[in-house]
TrEMBL record, chains A, B:
Residue span(s) of domain Pseudouridine synthase I TruA alpha/beta: 8-104, 146-243
CDD domains in alphabetical order: PseudoU_synth_EcTruA (cd02570)
Family to which the UniProt record says this protein belongs: Belongs to the tRNA pseudouridine synthase TruA family.
One protein family per Pfam: PseudoU_synth_1
Taxonomic placement: Bacteria, Bacillati, Bacillota, Clostridia, Peptostreptococcales
UniProt-listed InterPro entries: PsdUridine_synth_cat_dom_sf (IPR020103), PsdUridine_synth_TruA (IPR001406), PsdUridine_synth_TruA_a/b_dom (IPR020097), PsdUridine_synth_TruA_C (IPR020095), TruA/RsuA/RluB/E/F_N (IPR020094)
SUPFAM superfamilies, per database record: Pseudouridine synthase (SSF55120)
Keyword Plastid appears in the UniProt entry: no
Protein name: tRNA pseudouridine synthase A
Length: 243, 243
């Protein structure tokens, strides 16, 4: 028996998210089926965490136990040969039995892409959040800094999730404009349900002057109603998981 | 009557190319239908040139004559309201009657994207040419320079097109590596049928060491058989047309 860690890139557009569920095709299910075709084993693929419907990943990490004798360096191409072209295994490693893609994760980095142009741009339609309003990037750059550090991020959590604590630590944030694209990055020890999307939605609301309250105050309020809207899934990318 | 010039961005993935034809949906046809819904006029939309099936555009230009009284600054949103989300009008201007999107074009700039990584990356699957081989970028940078200037590019033209002359002038070339992506740009007074794709295919063949002949020699031979393969349509973007 071996414990195999794989790194996965996917375009989440046509899936109901990472996790297996009824009535919709999940990324987990598609990869488990591909592994079955290779190994004839029904594995339980454990990921670093769910991604919602429409969310993409550049560096999702998952692990599974297998008795298959396949050489680890052949695993990506073997699985990929059974995957559709919107999911790709880009790395595989044998890891110790106590490695758990979710519980062993120390940090995660997310990227969020905003398309800020006068008209929609088709090339980016599935990979960005289209915002037509003028955005005050300098203000957004100032505000985003308030996220750094250990805070209770309750204001930035959608209801419907049960967690022991809403305290998380953000180690790094970044916001960068490249032509029509505004690219945000967030690195932290964990993220609450919809946290990145609510932070981005709030930053957009602040940047266009729709709400006039600092992120610092919103954090202090611990009240979802004080934050802005939830930015759409299609702009979000799970970029990297650190172990 | 007014002559309206529009700039169009499209994702060519799901189309049989720019030009109207039987049995396949064309970008021209879809935009003409959208203009009809707005103006009730059956216009003839003239573009700067055809793009093949699967080729994208960031800055395709087209013009049409209309008796519609719609304000020119309202044209992009009006047409876009009738377009699918993989085509978008991003600019509109009223131009003189002698403006012709094809005959008035002075220069064109194309971009070509190669994905050069160990494994396929789903996010780029419709917008790049996946090449898994190691490529000698330095050699490709040296070779691409031979394209600059006025040359007979007969070696880089697919059969099936009739042109008066195969002489064209390339004003600028660029090749740039950004992580897994190799981005090439070509600016010239005109391009032969499949010229950019054959140039890119040849550069890839040279970069991976499959063929050992300089672009300079291939140009001199004026023989399509001396050049490399035709790179796929999905990596190609019509970036800008100059008037």
């Amino acid at each position: 028996m071996r414990n195999i860690m794989i790194t996965i890139e996917y375009d989440g557009t046509n899936y109901g998210g990472w996790q297996k569920q009824n009535n919709t095709l999940s990324i987990q299910q598609v990869i488990e089926e591909a592994i079955y075709k290779i190994t004839k084993e029904r594995v339980n693929l454990i990921s670093s965490g769910r991604t919602d419907a429409g969310v993409h990943a550049i560096g999702q990490v998952a692990n599974f136990m297998t008795n298959s004798k396949i050489l680890v360096e052949k695993i990506p191409n073997a699985i990929n040969s059974k995957l559709p072209n919107d999911i790709s295994v880009v790395d595989a490693k044998e890891v110790s039995f106590n490695f758990h893609a979710r519980y062993s994760a120390k940090k995660k980095r997310y990227k969020y892409v905003i398309l800020n142009s006068k008209y929609k741009r088709p090339i980016y339609r599935n990979y960005s959040y289209y915002v037509k309003y003028d955005l005050d990037i300098d203000k957004m750059k100032e505000e985003i800094k308030f996220l750094i550090g250990e805070h209770d991020f309750k204001s930035f959590m959608s209801s419907g999730s049960s967690v022991k604590t809403t305290v998380r630590t953000i180690y790094d944030v970044n916001i960068n404009k490249q032509d029509d694209l505004i690219i945000l990055e967030f690195e932290g020890n964990g993220f609450l349900y919809n946290m990145v999307r609510i932070i981005v939605g709030t930053l957009v609301d602040i940047g266009r002057g729709k709400i006039d309250i600092s992120l610092k105050n919103i954090i202090d309020c611990k009240d979802r109603n004080k934050a802005g809207h939830t930015a759409p899934a299609c702009g979000l990318f799970l970029k990297k998981v650190y172990y």
